[in-house]
């Protein structure tokens, strides 16, 4: 194995480290399981795995408080698990079952939870960005100091609506954190083949929005940056941009020939920069956990994921009558 | 149901590059790539671009190999900016080039809709003919891949409602190539809708059975070189006397399956082009059969079927023995799990045919 750099021991508690480890591992194992279920034909259509990017949502959730909101794209499983949604309900939506968060109407890309302030799950690239500003605007009306994490990708950062939103968010001092998850690829197109202004967070300057880039493979760095962003928004200073530098290990969706990057590139990231291994190193070297302890956590997580998978297999398919629900407040089925 | 492949390969698939140079195309993907290759070769003003289109070769592989062969100036990637893609294409077209752009899924065209409606469709009229807009916008369309509400739509009626556009939807590889070449030659903006369920075979709505390959279908092998299938000409896919079925895209194969399985002697017409519409072929058929069923996958209300039904009753009123029936997707968003309850499959088409035949 190529050497990961031995990390300095940061000033962080054992409990926090264990929490991040657990949360990131849950996402990874959940996604691996989703990949398996897809292979077995239990999940159909699209399924965008979050493997490699776990530190982004786990770090930012560590900076969030109750009542803060989040909204993202179709690559949404990690966000849902990190904000505390039930893995069973998420997995059952992947399999399109009644027990899924959208009762089988949405699938992998379209899930929501009012309870956890998770506003989706959006299949159209960039579409969630103005919505995020709108959520923040509602908080501003309410007069509270809650913030909205509005996630989007490096590819989405080239959609025009992002810049319309930047302008409005700054104009109206909205408490919205724009989180650009820069995993370096939009499907098969790398950042350098889609823009000549590759420092995405700096584009905010044109609108007067502050921001920064952060190492997205280091959960502690992400959390710290998240705290700065949150403080900025809670103080009423308007929006903030975080460009989180990360990497997706798997294909864009489930059948991806991966011809746009080399196997070595992926391998190098996995071996040298993996976010979970990073925390594992911190735990071990800080004397916070033994191999045994971590194995026990692994076992715990596996049990949660297996339970979710079983639930997602056993939950019934939605009744055909569901075709006619939730279209309008009231709707009469068509016949013939 | 679970044992069947639940989607086609998106962002993957074969890279055999049939259709380019050597062997005749034997899938709709190859046929489309072949048409683009021919156009790029014959006409130096043709330019092909879109998301993942250049270096990667397209998520459905319709442009695989074209950048390598024709150079990055002729076939290139764009950022994820649908409005920009179409808008830039319109500008290019107004000033001498022939852009053929890809919107990765028809569902992603809404950011570009303003440019399509307000600029592309109106440029000729607005400038009293001084400037024109010879662009082609290709879009994979339709469902049946568990893509749910954002990856399954059939928005043809949003285009047929816009004067100034032409709208094409092929149902097989031979037509796909010939129609695409006609679209590229056309002096006006053409929306070219590619039913993605047909990319790899003549899917007939029987989602629980494997789809046969195009290789074994009479319309499956697109000949090499340039040939044109003219816009505005329908094709009669099955001759019949009892009733006329009007369909396009995937629904042509669904309709054929429905009438074959129920031994209904229907005449099945593949419209191929919605605008301009081959009303002559439609009217001749309905005047002969006296009965008509209109089929599309898009939602019913204000769908293109409404236009067809209106035209048929206006042109064939005194020949009709029964009201015209429409079989369409229900007026719901495209569902995820329940997509086959939404999809107007052979059973629904056959039932409509029977109802229309029962009227004395
Ligand atoms: C408007 C629109 N255009 C195109 C697509 C197809 N598409 C889905 S994801 C994607 C790439 C997005 O990349 P990025 O924003 O970097 O997010 P990532 O997938 O890397 O998380 C594309 C082109 C879409 N869903 N919506
Ligand atoms: Mg990306």
> How can the largest sheet of chain A be summarized?
5 strands, parallel
CATH class of the largest domain in chain B: Alpha Beta
CA-based gyration radius of chain A: 20 Å
- What structural class is derived from the secondary structure elements of chain A? alpha/beta
Report the uncertain regions of chain B.
1-8
Order of helices and strands of chain A: HHEHHHEHEEEEHEHHH
Give the chain pair forming the largest contact, with residue counts. Answer: A-B, 51 and 51 residues
Distance between the termini of chain A: 63 Å
Q: What profile does the largest beta sheet of chain B have?
A: 7 strands, mixed
Q: Kindly provide the radius of gyration of chain B, computed on alpha-carbon positions and rounded to a whole number of angstroms.
A: 20 Å
The coarse silhouette of chain B is globular
Helical stretch tally of chain B: 12
What would you call the shape of chain A? globular
Question: Describe it for me?
Answer:
The complex is a heterodimer of chains A (336) and B (360). With 336 residues, chain A is α/β, with parallel strands linked by helices. Chain A has a domain at 45-248: Rossmann fold (3-Layer(aba) Sandwich). In chain A, 41% of the residues lie in helices and 10% in strands. Chain A has 10 helices and 7 strands. Chain A has helices at 14-39, 54-63, 77-82, 87-94, 128-142, 160-171, 219-234, 263-273, 275-285, 291-314; strands at 69-71, 148-153, 176-182, 185-186, 189-190, 210-215, 240-245. In chain A, the strands form 2 sheets. A 5-stranded parallel sheet of chain A has the order 1-2-3-7-6, sandwiched between helices. A two-stranded antiparallel ribbon of chain A has the order 4-5. In chain A, α6 (160-171) links the parallel β2 (148-153) and β3. In chain A, α1 packs across α2, α1 packs across α10 (291-314) and α2 (54-63) crosses α7 (219-234). Chain A is globular. The relative contact order of chain A is 0.17. With 360 residues, chain B is of the alpha/beta class. Chain B has 2 domains: 28-216, Thiamin diphosphate (ThDP)-binding fold, Pyr/PP domains (Rossmann fold), CATH 3.40.50.970; 235-358, Rossmann fold (3-Layer(aba) Sandwich). Chain B has 12 helices and 12 strands. A 7-stranded mixed sheet of chain B has the order 2-1-3-4-6-5-10, with helices on both faces. Chain B is globular and about 60 Å long. The model of chain B is unreliable at 1-8 (pLDDT under 50). Bound molecules: thiamine diphosphate (TPP) and magnesium ion (MG).
């Amino acid at each position: 194995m190529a050497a990961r750099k031995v990390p300095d021991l940061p000033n962080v508690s054992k409990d926090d480290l264990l929490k991040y480890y657990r949360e990131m591992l849950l996402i990874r194992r959940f996604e691996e399981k989703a990949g398996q279920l897809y292979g077995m034909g239990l999940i159909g259509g699209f399924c965008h795995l979050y493997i490699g990017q776990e530190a982004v949502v786990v770090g930012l959730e560590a900076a969030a408080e109750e009542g803060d909101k989040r909204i993202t794209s179709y690559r949404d499983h990690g966000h849902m698990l990190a904000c505390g949604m039930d893995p069973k309900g998420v997995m059952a939506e992947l399999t399109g079952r009644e027990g899924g968060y959208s009762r089988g109407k949405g699938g992998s890309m379209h899930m929501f939870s009012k309870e956890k302030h998770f506003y989706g799950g959006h299949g159209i690239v960039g579409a969630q960005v103005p919505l995020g500003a709108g959520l923040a605007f509602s908080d501003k009306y309410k007069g509270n100091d809650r913030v909205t994490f509005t996630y989007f990708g490096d590819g989405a950062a080239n959609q025009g609506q992002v810049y319309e939103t930047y302008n409005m968010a700054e104009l109206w001092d909205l408490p919205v954190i724009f989180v650009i998850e820069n995993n370096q690829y939009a499907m098969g197109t790398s950042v350098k083949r889609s823009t000549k202004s590759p420092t995405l967070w700096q584009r905010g300057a044109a609108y007067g929005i502050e921001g920064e880039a952060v190492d997205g493979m280091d959960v502690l760095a992400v959390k710290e940056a998240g705290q700065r962003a949150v403080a900025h928004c809670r103080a009423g200073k308007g929006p903030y941009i975080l460009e989180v530098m990360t990497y997706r290990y798997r294909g864009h969706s489930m059948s991806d020939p991966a011809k746009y990057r080399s196997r070595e590139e992926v391998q190098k990231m996995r071996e040298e920069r993996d976010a979970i291994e990073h925390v594992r190193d911190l735990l071990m070297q800080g004397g916070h956990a033994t191999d045994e302890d971590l194995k026990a956590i692994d076992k715990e997580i596996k049990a949660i994921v297996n339970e979710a998978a079983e639930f997602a297999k056993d939950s019934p398919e939605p009744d055909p009558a569901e075709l006619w629900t939730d279209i309008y407040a009231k709707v009469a089925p068509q016949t013939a | 149901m679970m044992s069947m492949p639940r989607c086609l390969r998106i962002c993957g698939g074969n890279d055999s590059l049939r259709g380019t140079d050597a062997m005749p195309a034997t899938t709709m993907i190859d046929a489309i790539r072949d048409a683009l290759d021919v156009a790029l070769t014959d006409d130096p003003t043709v330019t092909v671009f879109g998301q993942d289109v250049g270096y990667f070769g397209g998520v459905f592989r319709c442009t695989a190999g074209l950048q390598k062969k024709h150079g990055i100036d002729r076939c290139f990637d764009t950022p994820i900016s649908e409005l920009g893609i179409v808008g830039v294409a319109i500008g290019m077209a107004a000033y001498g080039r022939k852009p053929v752009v890809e919107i990765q899924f028809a569902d992603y065209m809404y950011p570009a809709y303003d440019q399509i409606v307000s600029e592309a469709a109106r440029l000729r009229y607005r400038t009293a003919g001084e400037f024109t807009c010879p662009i082609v916008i290709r879009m994979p369309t339709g469902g049946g891949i568990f893509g749910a509400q954002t990856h399954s739509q059939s928005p043809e009626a949003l285009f047929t409602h816009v004067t100034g556009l032409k709208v094409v939807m092929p149902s097989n590889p031979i037509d796909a190539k010939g129609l695409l070449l006609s679209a590229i030659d056309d002096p006006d903006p053409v929306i070219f809708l590619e039913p993605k369920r047909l990319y790899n075979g003549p899917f007939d709505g029987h989602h629980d059975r494997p789809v046969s390959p195009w290789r074994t279908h009479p319309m499956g092998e697109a000949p090499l070189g340039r040939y044109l299938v003219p816009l505005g000409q329908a094709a009669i896919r099955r001759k019949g006397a009892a009733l006329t079925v009007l369909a396009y895209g995937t629904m042509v194969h669904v309709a054929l399956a429905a009438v074959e399985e129920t031994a209904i002697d229907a005449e099945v017409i593949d419209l191929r082009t919605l605008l301009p519409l081959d009303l002559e072929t439609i009217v001749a058929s309905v005047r002969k059969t006296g009965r008509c069923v209109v089929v599309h996958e898009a939602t019913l209300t204000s769908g293109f079927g409404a236009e067809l039904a209106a035209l048929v009753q206006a042109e064939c009123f005194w020949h009709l023995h029964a009201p015209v029936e429409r079989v369409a997707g229900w007026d719901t968003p495209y569902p995820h799990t329940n997509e086959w309850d939404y999809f107007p499959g052979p059973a629904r088409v056959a039932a409509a045919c029977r109802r229309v035949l029962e009227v004395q």
